[in-house]
Amino acid sequence: MKDVIIYTVDYCPYCKKAEMLLNEKNIPFKKIDISENEDEYRKKLGEYYDIKGRVTVPQIVIGNKRIGGFDDLEKLNNSGSLDSLLN
Asked: Where in the sequence is the domain holding 16, given as residue range(s)?
């Protein structure tokens, strides 16, 4: 199974939804809470993943691929593509 990383902030309901979905599917993940240096981390994430515009959270990465936020994760799950992406 590929590594899953989720960048979150402590006040974000979509971050919590993403964590809940991953937990419900028993998908292990590494959570990186960027709350303390949020502006700096958002800038670094934007540069690293070549994100245009405002960097939102959660940012979810599977393997070396950034899949986006909660809506993207949910779409992958609902389409059945999430499981194959993890392998």
From this structure: 4-86
